[in-house]
Structure prediction request, 178 residues.
Amino acid sequence: MKIRAFPLSRVYRLLEPGPVVLVTTSHKGRANVMTMSWHTMMEFEPPLVGCVLSGRNYSFDALVKTRECVLNIPTAEIAQKVVKVGNSSGRRLDKFKAFGLTPLPASQVAPPLIAECYASLECRVADTRLVNKYNFFVLEVVKAWHDPAQKNPRTLHHQGKGSFRVAGEVLKLPSRMK
Prediction:
């Protein structure tokens, strides 16, 4: 194998942490949705997810003030909508209406689920100690939903600069965890 230096500014493209999600927030009765790909599982039980939201995002303020959100996991079938959501601001635009997304009521938090997504995770902020320095939130998943009809969903994985991979082949390998 021949290796060569790789630009540090592009390392995130190699370590993409998981599927792109649509984060919904709700503040003062107004729901919003944003696209996010910077997140990671931190704990199994209770399920904890770490994520980064830019302080410039409209959703950042709503998450800081309400301390709750929903992580909705879309599939490749709505990739164009996911990109359009990510390329627009909710400050003046109702993204649900603009991009044809259907809000569904959540059971534990105010922000809605998104009907077009195959799974949704209702979350509450569990830890904010890294928010001021890194915009890093630790979320606890308090309720999880999925569409059991989708056995192997084709999730989107952002690689930067408008490039995405789609989850594909499922490999079943021996594991000590069952």
